[in-house]
Amino acid sequence: MSELILTPNIDRGDDFYAALLKAHDGLNKADSDALNARLLLVLANHIGDGEVLAQAIEAAANAAPR
Amino acid sequence: MNATNKIFDTPLYPYERSADQDAATPARHTAIVIGAGPVGLTTAIDLAHQGIETVLLDENDKVSFGSRAICFAKRPLEIFGRLGAEQALIDKGVEWDVGKIFFQDRDVYQFDLQPEQGHERPAFINLQQYYLEKFLVDRIREMQEAGAPLEIRGQNKVVSVSDRGDGVEVRVETPDGEYELHADWLIACDGACSPTRAMLGLEFEGRVFEDNFLIADVVMEADFPSERWFWFDPPFNRGQSALLHQQPDGVWRIDLQLGWDIDREAEKKPENVIPRLKAMLGEDVDFELEWVSIYTFKCRRMESFRHGRVLFAGDSAHEVSPFGARGANSGIQDADNLVWKLKLVIDGVAPENLIDSYDAERTRAADENILNSTRSTDFITPRSETSRTLRDAVLDLAEHYPFARPMVNSGRLSVPCTYDGSPLVSADALTGGPPRTRPGSPCPDVPLGEHDYLLRHLGDRFVLLTIDCEAPDEIEEEGVTVTRLALTTQDDRTGFLKERYLGEAPSAVYLIRPDQHVAARRIEYNETLMRTALRRTLGKEVAK
Fold first, then answer.
1. Terminus of chain A with fewer CB atoms < 10 Å: N or C?
2. pLDDT tens for residues B102-153?
3. What's the complex ipTM?
């Protein structure tokens, strides 16, 4: 079974984060939400592995503020 | 009025006084079926086909008004093939393979069902429910002429049902007053609002979807192709969905989502329906409304489909959303699953608890159908702002990238259930065998020579299918005869036999049930193990 990676794994993380913000520049809330949704689906398809995706959903849900 | 409308109006099985109404003591029949819809007609035909004396009762005397169920899948067509009722359906039905998906004002993508080759029947046909019912009644008349023990009684409304343990008593209302009938077995195919279920006080719980759909059949001379068109959030029905699908005789099915807070009576009026349809079809398209209805739906099933000697089949037992054509299609498969078991029990060959496996296998199928149709509904009618955002993201992506297209869910079209884990099914003992023919699966068809197909040789009896291995021509066990069908890969010119039944295995033996589902399979014939598998399928062994 594949394990979800929860340690730093993105090559040049600051660049990625900046690119993510830039993609949202000038978008209203609805368009931003739509972009996030499309991005999520593109990434999920790239990962593909259902086990990893299930762990990712759980990891994201678990990190909600209490 | 066009010719099709006459079907609604002509009594197909008008009321006739039966000798049972004058009997001094109530007549007792082997089987009574309530409801002459697609499921009741199929059940009655299958029962009579197996030689079981049957009376089919219906409160009406005509086919259903309006086309209702329109999409019939391969597996039900195969069942009608087994019952000799298939040709008229296929001749009349419209075959289709292409579906188009629209989102807002855009044509997002189209798909081809690319029906698998090497099957006798098409993947789907569209056919109005009234035609299906008419053709099934024709089949009943044909069987009656050949001496089949089957009666169909119109305007016979069942007004009370009591289960007596070893049989059932019903009271029937007719234009000549009431009479009483007894039966060994009662099969209630009386629809989602089943009066039988209500009379027995049985529950039918599930999820209600707060939405209304306008369903309209229109007759038009239009050059829309024979494709299934589905719109999400179209300009002519903002925020909602729409479906256009062709039926025979130039009749088109239109399904428009309306939302929850509407005036149902007003929405049904032609002065409101026609502008909606014009917005969809174009101002210049001439059409005539054949049938309009507004429906809501629930996804629910009975906890058990068997209550003593009363069995529930079709919508009376389970109700699904219409997305995916899983209603009538699954009900017809209920009949297919039930009748051979009833035959064995009635003949005293199998114990009565064999009938419990009908409940086990078909509640599993119902759960699968409910799951699939609920997921379709959640995609088509998102329940929250976020689910709508995600749904729209899938559609936007689908326009550009193939990966998102399988996520678009406008209905996962009906496929048969594999009875994994059924008490009647033996563990898979064919190493390297294709998963699609594992025990519990419906047998996929295979061409055998020029104009012959495998499924023509299966069904109604137990068959021992051998591929490239030896076995006796007949096995007798517990009063059941299993007949061998010997095939070889040498004659398998298309390669489908090997692909569908051997996979990596060098040879195979399949024990196939009368409903054309696999009961057991092994690499070679083994007398002791095959007999055990057969007893298990008769409800006489506990599954491994």
1. C
2. 999 999 999 887 788 999 999 899 999 999 999 999 999 999 999 999 999 9
3. 0.96
Q: Which of A37, A40, A45 sits opposite B403 (nearest CB)?
A: A45
| Sign, Cα dihedral of A3, A5, A11, A16 | positive
Query: Which residue range is the domain that position A25 belongs to?
Result: 13-62
- B327 touches B414 (CB < 8 A): no
Do the Cβ atoms of B93 and B72 come closer than 8 Å? yes
Residue A38 lies inside a defined structural domain of this protein: yes
Helix (H, G, I), strand (E, B) or coil at B483: strand
Q: What is the DSSP string of B29-77?
A: EEEEEE--SHHHHHHHHHHHHTT--EEEE-SSSSPPSS----EEEHHHH
User: Does the beta-carbon distance from B392 to A41 stay under 8 Å?
Assistant: no
Contact (CB, 8 A) for B211 and B58: no
List domains and CATH numbers for chain B. 3-93+126-202+299-370 (3.50.50.60), 435-537 (3.40.30.120)
Determine, for residues B407 and A41 on separate chains, whether the beta-carbon distance falls below 8 Å.
yes
B176-198 pLDDT, tens digit per residue, is 999 999 999 999 999 999 999 99
Q: What is the pLDDT of residue B5?
A: 54
Cα distance between residue B174 and residue B338, in whole Å: 29
Asked if residues B396 and B103 have their Cβ atoms less than 8 Å apart, the reply is yes
pLDDT in tens, B391-411: 999 999 999 999 999 999 998
Please report the pLDDT score of residue B291 as a whole number: 87
Chain B residue closest in CA terms to A38: B393
Angle of CA points B312, B314, B320, to nearest 5°: 120
Q: How many domains does chain A have?
A: 1
**Cβ pair B389:A41 closer than 8 A:** no
Residue B389 with chain A: CB contacts under 8 Å: 30, 33-34, 37
